[in-house]
Amino acid sequence: MTATDQEEAARQLNAILSCHPPRLWVPRSEPPEILAYPSRSWYDLHLDANLALRRLTSTPVVLDDIDELAVRYLDDLRNNGLHSGLPEVHLPEVPSGEYRAAKPGILGAVEYFQESFLRLCLRIGTRLLLCPDAPTWPFFLVWRRVLNDDLDDGLAVDEKYGLYLPSTESHHPNLREAARAYTSKQVMHDLQALIDRSPNIGTWVMLAPSKESEHLISSLHELQAVTPKACRTTGFPRLPVSFERQRPRDASEPMWSLTDSEGPPEPLKRSLRSVDMLKPSVGSKSRIVPAAFRRRRSTAFEYENLTPESLLRLGWARAVETDSTIIVFSCGTLERIAIRRRDTQTLHISELIKVSDSDSPPYLRLQVGLYIAVVKDTIARLREEGSAGLRRSSRKRKAPEAVSALAFKRQKVDNKKPTKPESAITIAGRKDFMLLYLRYGMYDSPAPASFVRIGPCLKTSDPAKSERPSVKRRYSEDQCIRMILTSQLGLGATGVAHTASLQVVDNDGAEQTQEVVVKIALLPEPQAQLRHEFEIYRRLATHAVQGVPEVYGLFEDLEGGAIALVMSHCGECLWLLRRTHPSFALNLNVSERQRFYAVLDDIHAAGVRHHDVRPENLMLDPAGRAYFIDFDRANLDPTDGAKRREKRILVGLLERAHYPDYGMRSPQTPPST
Ligand SMILES: Nc1ncnc2c1ncn2[C@@H]1O[C@H](COP(=O)(O)OP(=O)(O)OP(=O)(O)O)[C@@H](O)[C@H]1O
Q: What is the atom index within ligand 1 of the atom nearest the CA of 533?
């Protein structure tokens, strides 16, 4: 193209990016969604204090900095003579007037983004950043919901949107051939590193378009201080420092000019009993005060209305999870962009952006700058981590055993009679109070949650026992079970299963530890299913059925929001074993298959039908023992016909790999430690 054409192309591109997107109209949701904090926020109480949001500041310059980034890249295109055609010919037009979404709520806003400007801005952003020499405007960057792990229905907020880098089956960047030819080796290398780390980048918190959402987003800048939330248990024993967390780093050459004039962040404050909350308990006289003295009427997670503060905390927690620097709060009509500073734990919040009516900077150009900023920042931090020799997780952790070893402070030594120590499970079976800590990924509970027993240990107590112990005002350390969740094992319809380390002190003051699995349910329906599952295990325990998890109790959170089923670890499921052995059925030897049949016969003899015989629920432990797990769909006293049918399903599965949904994805999430 001639020099004049370059000018014309640049003018056209600028004109396209200066268009106002159409106004948004969405139909009303029936029933209306609620603008409340999602149930997964139960986990946010356990966010590591070094990663939590501590301060907010309003930083108008954020928008100019991001816009300038887009302008710089656009100028480079023109100055380097890289326009290869007139953008009006190659890029779609931005619709004007009003966009009437077909879908209500958040999906309506998402549809509006997609139909009005997303593809356009993503294509421009892709070319400017990755392959400015390309003759076309390639499709590569994607914006979408990045995780498919819905626990809550009917909420007007969803913070799981972000940019996504598509990859091929062999996990390479899925840039079309045409674009790849124009992408430098360095950029390809960076994209590969991003995909290897996690192809999901940036955090978009989407709210259903409404007056209330607009009010929330408008009010975000008014806050200054934030009170980190934590469980209210006090006087609890501190876990020994078992790993060295390297504070996550910000890019050393940020794309924005943020100033934290207030100095270092204030120490953590709690809303309640802040004085003794952070003190570790000392010695045997220490007294642990549970988070509440009375059980709540309902143990289920109760939705609380979103406030500006809780909305910001929600976005912040997700940004920690996805390691994002940029968080966008949007309800389709209004937006704010926020920058997360890791070192000062501060969120810098932009001015309000009116999506269909923003001229300075123009909304679409700002979008292009935003995508560039999200990708560039992540690449910059990855490169710095690489050159500093840091691992992606930015933390080093000892094995869970090491966490447990020194945990209790009381170490009474009584050398009188060398008796065989009781097992951790036997001791725990007599205890009704449990301190639950989270220690994996981004979690390191500032305070443990207080749980009280609602179901007996089915291994060491009478399974028929159904008393509900009262809550004491205080507990000593030797009255507590200490439960440390160490990773997420799997996510199902009922709850989230975790590996955990159960720790107790025996009569001699020595610590006993057992690795277990803890399944947590938050919402009313999953909690009802988990209680039902416990009742099924009660029946199985009454008949001494082997080949099902040993169940060590059902516990409820005194602050509400969660119940926890504690059970033995049963190894790995056949679905996962199938990954290494393409046909799990053929890889089970005869005696392994016989073991599964024998267990199912025992389950049936106890008057239980499993009702969910799938490879995900059949486990083999390292010793080759067979287990059935996940009895939340099981029923009691089935007919003989039903038992026979279930046996046939198992035989079909194990002998012929006959599985109706064989190609279905496993509900498993990868372990996160
Ligand atoms: N006792 C256990 N030992 C080992 N792994 C377990 C155990 N319990 C659960 N898991 C793991 O956690 C995953 C989810 O647990 P589970 O199937 O019990 O949850 P769920 O919510 O009832 O799931 P679903 O939607 O399949 O009913 C399982 O697929 C399994 O991998």
A: 22
